[in-house]
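Whiteboard transcription, Tuesday session. T.W. wrote the C-alpha cells on the left side:
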C-alpha cells in the first residue's frame, strides 16, 4: 500500500488537482504501542507520505528551495517514529501529518503508518492507519512556542485616532497576544470601493500563543466593539484589523488566507510595517521578500502621508 490510496485528489485555489510528491517505505524502529513489551523491545514501522502541492514554480526555476526537500522530509518522518512513544499509530500518523504540513506550499498531506509486527494472534499481512490532513488544520492549532504575527489596522470613520488608540489598547490586553512594536500612523487615500474619507493606518507587530483562528477571532471581536459592519467590499469602516502574517504559515482558506493575499502590494500596510521594522520580510509566492522592496513597487505609495503628530503609544 502507498499513502493516498482511497483518497481523491486535492484541488488548489484554481480548482485544478494539485501535484503530488510521494515518499514511500520510510522505515524506522519505534517503541509505540499499548503493551509493555512493545515499549521495551520496539518494532519497525513503515510510513508512506503524499504531499499535495504545486510544483510548477520549482520546475520552472529548477530551484530546490521552491519545493519540499524529500531527503529532509524522510529524516523528519523517521525521527518522529524513533521519538516519543505513543499508544496508537493513529496518534503517530497525526504527528507525522502535522510535520508534513509545515513546509510552505503543502496544501494537504496523506500519511499511512504500517505496523506489520502488530501483536495480533491471527495471521495477517499488515496493519495500516491512513489519514489525510489539510493545511487548514494548522489554523486551528495553538503553537508550542510564541509565533510572530503582523496585524494591520485601518479606520476612516468616526474619531479615527481614538479608534486606533483604543484598538491598540484592546490588542495589548488580549489574552495570548503580546505586542512588541506599534508603528507610526500613516494616512492614505482609499483603495477601491466608493468615494470615502482618507484612512489612518498602523501596523502592530506581536507574538502570540493563540492559534491563527483565535488571532482572527480576537481581531474580529475588537472590530465589532467599534461598530465594524461588513456591508460593502472595500467600503468605509470604523475599524479594520487584518491578520497579515502568522509566522511562516501559508493558508489558502477562504476565511483566513495567509499571508494576506494583497499585503505585498498595499502601501498602507507596507509603509507602517517598514517604519516599525526596517528589516521586515513578507512571505510571497516568490518566497520571502523585504518589505522595503515591496513598498517601492506598491501602486498606492504615492498617496502616503506620514502623521508623526498622531501617536498611538504613551498617550494620555
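and on the right, the sequence the group agreed on:
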Amino acid at each position: 500500500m502507498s499513502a493516498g490510496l482511497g483518497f481523491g485528489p486535492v484541488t488548489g485555489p484554481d480548482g485544478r488537482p494539485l501535484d503530488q510528491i510521494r515518499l514511500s517505505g520510510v522505515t524506522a524502529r519505534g517503541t509505540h504501542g499499548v503493551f509493555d513489551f512493545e515499549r521495551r523491545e520496539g518494532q519497525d514501522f513503515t510510513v508512506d507520505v503524499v504531499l499535495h502541492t504545486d510544483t510548477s514554480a520549482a520546475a520552472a526555476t529548477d530551484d530546490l528551495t521552491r519545493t519540499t526537500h524529500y531527503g529532509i522530509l524522510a529524516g523528519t518522518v523517521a525521527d518522529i517514529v524513533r521519538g516519543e512513544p505513543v499508544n496508537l499509530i493513529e496518534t503517530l500518523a497525526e504527528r507525522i501529518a502535522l510535520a508534513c504540513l509545515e513546509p510552505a506550499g503543502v496544501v494537504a498531506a496523506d500519511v499511512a503508518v504500517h505496523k506489520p509486527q502488530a501483536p495480533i494472534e491471527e495471521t495477517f499481512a499488515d496493519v495500516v492507519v491512513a489519514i489525510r490532513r489539510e493545511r487548514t488544520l494548522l489554523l486551528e492549532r495553538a503553537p508550542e512556542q510564541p509565533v510572530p504575527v503582523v496585524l494591520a489596522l485601518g479606520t476612516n470613520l468616526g474619531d479615527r485616532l481614538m479608534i486606533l488608540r483604543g484598538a491598540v489598547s484592546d490588542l495589548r490586553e488580549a489574552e495570548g497576544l503580546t505586542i512588541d512594536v506599534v508603528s507610526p500612523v500613516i494616512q492614505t487615500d482609499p483603495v477601491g470601493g466608493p468615494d470615502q474619507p482618507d484612512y489612518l493606518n498602523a501596523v502592530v507587530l506581536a507574538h502570540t500563543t493563540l492559534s491563527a483562528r483565535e488571532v482572527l477571532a480576537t481581531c474580529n471581536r475588537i472590530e465589532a466593539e467599534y461598530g465594524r459592519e461588513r456591508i460593502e467590499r472595500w467600503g468605509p469602516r470604523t475599524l479594520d484589523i487584518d491578520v497579515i502574517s502568522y509566522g511562516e504559515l501559508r493558508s489558502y482558506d477562504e476565511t483566513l488566507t495567509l499571508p494576506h493575499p494583497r499585503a505585498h502590494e498595499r502601501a498602507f500596510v507596507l509603509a507602517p510595517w517598514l517604519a516599525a521594522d526596517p528589516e521586515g520580510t513578507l512571505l510571497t509566492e516568490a518566497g520571502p521578500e523585504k518589505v522595503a522592496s515591496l513598498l517601492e513597487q506598491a501602486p498606492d505609495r504615492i498617496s502616503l502621508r506620514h502623521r508623526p503628530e498622531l501617536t498611538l503609544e504613551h498617550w494620555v
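Someone added at the bottom: The chain has two domains: 19-135, 147-306.
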